[in-house]
Specification:
The complex is a heterodimer of chains A (110) and B (114). By secondary structure, chain A is mostly beta strands. Helix content of chain A is 0%, strand content 55%. In chain A, strand 6 and strand 7 form a beta hairpin. In chain B, the strands form two sheets. In chain B, strands 2, 4, 5, 6, 9, 10 and 11 form a seven-stranded mixed β-sheet that branches. Classes of the chains: A mainly beta (110), B mainly beta (114).
Chain lengths: 110, 114
């Protein structure tokens, strides 16, 4: 079992819809959970990170971690065509190195 | 600051040749990371430095891979000899902290080994 699993997509949704992106992870020792956005032929950029369980909101983006089920989510409200990108989840704890999911390709249809 | 600068942007080389990828981190960042991204394996951390010292190279796939950071403003990732399975996009990133919450990635070097 891979340490971080992520559906590769592509996921296509109409503009204005709510987008839900998800990951599962296997190591209960992970403490930090991150979401990165990567545009085509660009490097990843950090969108949000959370520590332990709970929600974190930043504008149209909400990150959610459920440690009991080892489930990570990113919600995008009022999705825009500019949100079209690949979204990578990642996990990390201080005794180990950062582990990335393979990414989900998201297309927002105008 | 211009951000993390990588060169070259694209590299095509023949199997068996030596390849050197270069990175200039953001000034003042103490951590530098080298990553590799492929469709099959996703984004993988290869090695990272703290204050020019290699801290964790457990992600380096083989002895053919080596990385150096001779000073705070320059790092190289070398593959010798290169093989077709090394074809990937290699990213360099730098940050103030290990956690990477403020990490900035370069544009990447797309390496093709034929």
């Amino acid at each position: 079992q891979k340490e971080v699993e992520q559906d590769p997509g592509p996921l296509s949704v109409p503009e204005g819809a709510i987008v839900s992106l998800n990951c599962t992870y296997s190591n209960s020792a992970f403490q930090y959970f991150m979401w990165y956005r990567q545009y085509s032929r660009k490097g990843p950029e950090l969108l949000m990170y959370t520590y332990s369980s709970g929600n974190k909101e930043d504008g149209r983006f909400t990150a959610q971690v459920d440690k009991s089920s080892k489930y990570i989510s990113l919600f995008i409200r009022d999705s825009q065509p500019s949100d079209s990108a690949t979204y990578l989840c990642a996990t990390w704890n201080r005794d180990d190195k950062i582990i990335f999911g393979k990414g989900t390709r998201l297309h927002i249809l105008p | 600051d211009a951000g993390v600068i990588q060169s070259p942007r694209h590299e095509v080389t023949e199997m068996g040749q030596e390849v050197t990828l270069r990175c200039k981190p953001i000034s003042g960042h103490d951590y530098l990371f080298w990553y590799r991204q492929t469709m099959m394996r996703g984004l993988e951390l290869l090695i990272y430095f703290n204050n020019n010292v290699p801290i964790d190279d457990s992600g380096m796939p083989e002895d053919r891979f080596s990385a150096k950071m001779p000073n705070a403003s320059f790092s190289t990732l070398k593959i010798q000899p290169s093989e077709p399975r090394d074809s990937a996009v290699y990213f360099c990133a730098s940050s103030l902290e290990l956690l990477n919450t403020e990490a900035f990635f370069g544009q990447g070097t797309r390496l093709t080994v034929v």
